[in-house]
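Lecture notes, structural biology module. Today: joint structure prediction for complexes of two components.
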Amino acid sequence: MRRGSGRGTCRHRLRCLPALVLAGLLVLAATRSVAGNPPRVVSINACTDQLVLKLADPDQIASVSEYAGSPSFSVMAEVAKAYPKNQGHAEEVLVHDPDLVISGPYTNRATANRLEALGYRVVTLDSPDTFPGIRDNLRRMGRLLGHPERAQRLIERMDRILAAVAAELPPENRRLRALALRPNGVTVGKGSLLDTVMQAAGLRNVGRELGAGSYRELPLEHLVATQPDLLVLASSDTAQPSLAQGVMHHPVFDALESRREPVWLPGRLWTCGGWFNAEAVARLAEHAYGIRVDSEE
Amino acid sequence: MTREMGRPWLLTLLAAVLAGLMVGSLTLGYVAIPPGQVLGALVTPAETPVSLIVQELRVPRTLLGLFVGASLGIAGAGLQGLLRNPLAEPGVLGISNSAALGAVATLYTGIAATAPLALPAAAMAGALLAMLVLYGLAGREANVQTLILAGVAISSLAGALISVALNLAPSAHATTEILFWLLGSLADRGMDHVAWGLPFMGAGIILLLTAGRALDALSMGEETARSLGFNLTGLRFRVIAGATLAVGAGVAVSGSIGFVGLVVPHILRPLVGYQPARLLPASALGGAILLLLADMGLRLASDEVDLKLGVVTALVGAPFFLHLVLKTRRMTV
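The predicted structure, tokenised, for the full assembly:
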């Protein structure tokens, strides 16, 4: 119907120009995006936001999701301040009339379908839970944004940190048995990004022994029975949690307290897949084995 | 029955309020566009972002709010009349939950991701299947009590299976998606939803409207209705099939939205002189008004909180319903 043809003419940005008369948002776009230039993008997913903010030129970024500005989720919260935010609604995308919309697996299905029906290019990136998956995502994003060399540099830096940690790890039989604790007493096993990070830091994830997948409530009986050497507190806060987080008030934790101090991982380092997961690996390895690697930028 | 013929202006008033709300719903969104531009964008070809937003997002959202709300309202009125039970609503006969179960099945298996039409088709199929099972269980000549009990059983079973799907969902992502879908939303629907949803909802609403006179007779008792020459088996089929089509399609478009079908007929019943035939069109308009109001409210609040439509209708509907119940009690005691 009208949808297809209307959008078709709008692909030529200049013909859309006279009508970009919207509150404050208008000036964008007009002069850019002649064919061949890097695409202007709107990201509507907390994880893809961070990759876009890291890899794209500032004038390529039309809008990122509101989560991009939250230090709890986003390592790019500072950078994100400069850009308009969206809540992932189709209207907010249309207003920017971008060349490319980047979404993630948690994006509302209706929104992605709608944008595609209106003729927008919507690319949905997986949330990877392995380092090969993270490399693929970074490369793909680099290609999409027209900056493959930046993605490559990020991957190389990430791999340098991972290799430096791996080189210092103790032999298999001296590695610590660790248990991840997410808020509300949830643990993780094989198939989760947090497990990948723990493995890379030389920790044997007790969650795997319990058969936990990417999300499993942890009965405290298991905690007592498995007696992990180290607790990894994976919180979504920006500040280090007190030994609280609900379940940890239980007396059975006292039985573990004679062991090591728990290590804290802020949410922004393990929630999304990205180059910053290497920093999480470095933090764990330093806490567990005293390995010091320069992981900061 | 003194007020029987009272308030003939009611439908006109409701229609006028509804028209005003539709304009309001068009001008309200996630991006600020001056009302004048919105109305202009209704008629200009969809080449600019503004007309694209208005024509492809806000118009379908407003139309769907109108028709889903009308479907829920009139189905509630029809079922309350048929079952002569003030607690009847589309959920009671298992229509809502069965449609939701169909949709959840496509989300659970991931079919919804590959074929956009799979979800609404499965929701419709779920609603129709529930209707067949209901007839199979209760039989064509069953009394009202059996019908309600069979409906509650179907509803509970569908609800239990939805819980199983949530419990066993393959990933946290699937759980979230199912959960949010269940809370109901009209966000980012398009004209294609209108195109396939409207025929079902329209047919259901028309079926229910034709049941008015028979429901009037039924309100005086089954014997009276029969002696007046009304075919009660046919009436039952018309009301249940109408509710299934209207509510099934409504759930397919918007997810589960509660309380509209329950509350709206109760609010309007005294105003139409307790006449089912007049309650039906009034409840359609009233349902549309309530749903549009709720959908506008959540967009107004969207900067602060991201509320889902079913949550807002329940938040508004429940206290109001409680108030009504208390008021009726004071009047009767």
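Point to remember: The mean pLDDT of chain B is 90.
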